[in-house]
Amino acid sequence: MLAAHAAALGLRRALTRPSSGCLGHRFASAMVVQDSLSGQKVPLVDPARADSLSPLVWYSCGPTVYDAAHLGHARTYVSLDVLRRAAVVFHGTPVRFLMGVTDVDDKIISRAGTGSPVALAREQEASFFQSMATLGVAPPDALLRVTEHIDDIVGCISELEAAGTAYRVGEDDGAGEETGVYFSVGGFEASGGSYGRLRPAAAGSDAWDRERSPWKRDARDFALWKAAKPGELSWASPWGAGRPGWHIECSAMTLAAAGHRLDLHAGGSDLCFPHHVNEMAQSEAILAARRAAGSAGSAPGDAPAPEWVRAWFHPGPLTVDGQKMSKSLKNFTSVDAFVGGCAPGAGTRVSAAVAGRPAGDVFRLFCLRHPYRSAVSLTDDAVVAAAAELGRWTRFLDQAMLASAEAWGRAGSSSLRPVEDADVLAGAAAELRAAVAAALGDDLDTPRAMAHVARCVDTGLRSLHGGGAAGAAWALSLAAVVRAVAGTLADLGFASARPAAAWQGPLSPRPGVASDEVDPSSIGSALPDLVVGFRRAVRDAAMSQGGSAAVLRVCDAMRDDLGPRTAPSVDLRDGVDVTERAREFADQLAAAGQHDTEPGPPQAGGDEAHRAKQIPAQSLVHPSELFLGDEKYGRCDHTGIPLELADGTELSRSQRNKLKSLRKKHFTKWARGRSEPEVAEAAAFVRN
Ligand SMILES: [Zn+2]
Questions:
Q1: Predicted TM-score of the model (pTM)
Q2: Sign (positive/negative) of CA torsion 15, 19, 22, 28?
Q3: Ligand 1: distance of its center to the CA of 376 in Å?
């Protein structure tokens, strides 16, 4: 099941065959991650072992499988998935990713009732991986289940007991029901260990007092082995029938499956204390005991010991109204509910914005727009904004593939796009991959990586909406931008980008269009290309010295083009004849006497009036792209409102507000007759 999931998620190829670097060889990657223990950025690949033939060994604490996964869990696993893709696909570092699954614990036993806890755990584990798959999270290379490692766990507890860092609590000391084996923090410290280094403030605080129990020697001690209650699921041990405590699982399973050293240990930030603090104490105590006995790969007395974990990686929590999303607070949205269209809050806007898109991609972009370590608030606005941005990118890819194919068809045209335009596109495409890899390599700076993607899309959109009829060079450069954007997104786990990432260029069929389905004589298949070309030609004509006469010539050419193939009037979805609409536009241009081709800076009144005249012809332009093709402007913000003029002069707040209100008007017209999800998504741009 896991292998099939990995293949489906596009990671299997990359896992077995790194895209760069030598086969089966650690690539000397420059990638760094912030180690939670030292607070420093450390190389992901240990420089001392960069030439090792073995992959990076990475363990992540996994779910306790008793109930459905929620978005709070999902944020952790999406962050880990992106780190894994960054290492494997963008930095060519082979990774062996192990995940622990807690398949026996109080909650599972209580939830199973009279049924089988193990059966419930298997069912919930399958459901967990299914939920993760819908979010594009690739499964681990190996699953470490607690119930399959009981012998290893019992062995580790025995070692701790022999070393004096564990003690038995039983009937003898009259401690009542709480019998079993406890870890002795005092014993650990007496033998030279240092407890709580991952979270010193928490580990030394009075927070432990609430857990003070008469059978503990120290308030910080914790259970390693819990004696079974009558009839409860249990395993035999030197301390009687029972089951493992939570923390010892991960130490014992990784020491058994991955040896004495992990390159990376990951888990949600809520696991840092006490879980990871306790894991660390146990593992260090066990390794010290093994070293003392000469069984940990070094002679007795060798010092100092290499650390158990080279880097700790802790993605931050997802919050709702300032509180961590959790089962206990009952403020959670399950992954399945989210994918099914339910919202974090009131939700109709989110449902509308997410509808028709892969919800996993929306959630992934929502996560990637924030630093992985920060607490992130799950709000309707943030989810809608992510959906809108994803929609903008997807639309660009669709439009660009169409336009590239159409431009290629005009390779012989005398009116070619200036070669500089193709160069700009080619440059943007060539730089994207390296820029994204560099951002990801710098402690997984996903907001910066996403900003690079957005800028590349903007460059593509500007070229798409500007300029004249385009030639072969432009078509190929635009195709390169499509592949760069879609390839980057697909490699980051965005399922919706995969078809465009596989597109071969203007001579190949576009995704979803089989080559034998394309009939050049069919107006149905030709119409989208014609409209894209027509729209561009109308715009060029309007901006040219020719004014309305030039627009009319384009309209006539369009009629000629359509003539042999269809009835004289072609209705678009909103029932408007495009050629008639263009004629209206030409008339308005003539009436307004606005034919100048030297657009000045935006001015109050006159400029807006001029703009308003253009709106009818632009009614097919998505509101987020209204100003992107306009040569008058330079950089735009993420919603598509220009920040500056083409010459770099910054626009004032009032100038920007005018453009915003202009766009609101455009939005009102654009929205007519469009579907609710489309409108909700566009509204996210306009509202900002
Ligand atoms: Zn763990």
A1: 0.77
A2: negative
A3: 23
